[in-house]
Amino acid sequence: MSERLGVTPAQTVGxxxxxxxxWPDGPYVVPEGTPGAFWIRGQVFDGTGAPxxxxxxxxxxxxxxxxxxxxxxxxxxxxxxxxxxxGFGRSETDAHGRYALLTVKPGPLPDPDGxxxxxxxxxxxxxxxxxxxxxxxxxxPHDPANAADPVxxxxxxxxxxxxxxxxxxxxxxxxxRLQGENETVFFAV
Length: 189
Description:
Elements: H1 17-20, E1 38-45, E2 56-60, E3 88-92, E4 98-103, E5 109-110, E6 116-117, E7 120-126, E8 134-139, H2 150-154, E9 166-168, E10 171-173, E11 176-177
């Protein structure tokens, strides 16, 4: 006799990020009091416009000289000029989907094809319903280097605004929309 098995129901990942992927100094790419430091604050929204609770936003960036203290930097790893700069931050979202990262503005970067990339942060988002992280970039408003950035120029002009941070009293605001109207541009990495 053959028993017929049913279909496994769909399931989502999490929420679980706050249980093990956060640490007290995670949001601090630089220590508090670092000259030139500012906050990047924003909210993560789902496709219906609801805030995403228990998401995780990670940042990776160059130092103000456009360098990485990492062996993958083709110019060679070099310790940052800013004391305490670690180039990486991690912030969980709160009950309103808000995150915050304290950092400094990165410098421009050489592109693998010989062009120059404008100062930017690479942001990864982990959240409920995502089996894989999504990756985007945050560019700084009114930076003259944005006009020549090869990645930003490759994005449809109608959607580039989703990659630009806005000014805020203590730094910049950058909301991330996972789906729906004004969905943030994400990159396949």
